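Duplicate of #3305? Posting structure anyway:
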């Protein structure tokens, strides 16, 4: 079965071929500041979660302390008290 003709006459392939980056973008220099220096992607996301690293280390340390030193032995003898 051959492909059906588009009723509107619109061809998405022609649109994709005609659009794209122009050879001489007059706004390139005006837009460059958004992607360099303090506005780069890394620098914008760097301060998104302040304290997350310290909190992760503190939580891991507490979990290790609890596992090593705060053993709860009351559950081990629960079956004997029926």
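Output from current build:
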């Amino acid at each position: 079965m051959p492909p059906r003709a588009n009723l509107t006459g619109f061809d998405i392939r022609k649109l994709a071929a005609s659009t794209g980056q122009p050879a001489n973008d007059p706004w390139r220099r005006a837009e460059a500041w958004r992607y360099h220096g303090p506005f780069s992607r890394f620098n914008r996301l760097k301060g998104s979660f302040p304290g997350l690293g310290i909190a992760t280390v503190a939580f891991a340390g507490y979990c290790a302390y609890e596992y090593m030193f705060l053993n709860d032995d009351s559950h081990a003898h629960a079956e004997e008290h029926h």
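Confirmed duplicate; merging threads. The two ends are 77 Å apart (CA to CA). Helices lie at 12-18, 28-31, 41-46, 52-69.
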